[in-house]
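Can anyone check this?
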Amino acid sequence: MIRNWARLSLATLALTGCATTPAAVPPAPTAPVAAKAAAIEGDSPAPARMQWLYGSAEGAAESIQVYHAMVDYVRSAVADRPHDSVVLASDPGDGPAQFVPCGDKPFAAILDVDETAILNLGYEALLAEGRANRQNLIAYQTSGTDKAAPVPGALYAVKAMRQMGVKVIYSTNRDGIAAAGTAQTLDKLGFGPAVHGDTLFLRGDASSNPEKDGRRETLSQRYCVVAMAGDQMGDFADLFNAKGLNIKTRRSMAAHGWAAKMWGNGWFLLPNPTYGPGLRGTMDEVFPPDKRWTPESMGNTAGK
């Protein structure tokens, strides 16, 4: 999701530090103007994270794999109505999770927009060139652009779920000013109808909570939400993005207990190594000191 300018700023800073192998880096132009021209003309390598998400066969295959699994799960849910939806009723803390009951409500699936339904090629290229700013972000989101592409597998999944009678609803953390432009972009790429307040919800559309939990709460009162897809943890529950939550705890929350049972069982996570709250952590947070290895630690004296 392109969530907000603050997070994009962090992503920009992170991208500037991406390393490439010496063999992949062309000779550096002697003048700054030449360097800028090379980037715009496409002669320079894209940042590694963007190469994977927007250009690689592996990125496409993983997205398709996730959407195939989502369609299969939804098909089973429609055939055998579940008692509960996949929307949390409340923060379970250390106890068992409780989900909003389905009753006889019509079926729905909730999809995030950015890097879940669509790949924002137009804006991410601008970001890679170092030309991202809030003004450009707003202009992109409100333009109803066709400078984007469907996430591989997403259109298949949307069409398949609609054929089952499941209402597909898009929920994005884009601001309300982007409602019309976002709907136009989704329609142009084949995801329509995207109608604000019906099949499209943006930040602040649920008065109880401007974050996605507020929208999920509202939608789960109207629908039996049988599946959700996103590229960030907040696309499933905001508790994963609570302030002060450290790297180790956040990862453990997703990998253990009730949450671990949800992946592939109603919650479907798309890959996004480009931006978002998952891209943080010091060396000690990502590589715990008690898991470090060196040849010396094994008594390897080769080469001495």
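Reply from J.R.: I decoded it. Residues 95 and 258 are 9 Å apart (CA to CA).
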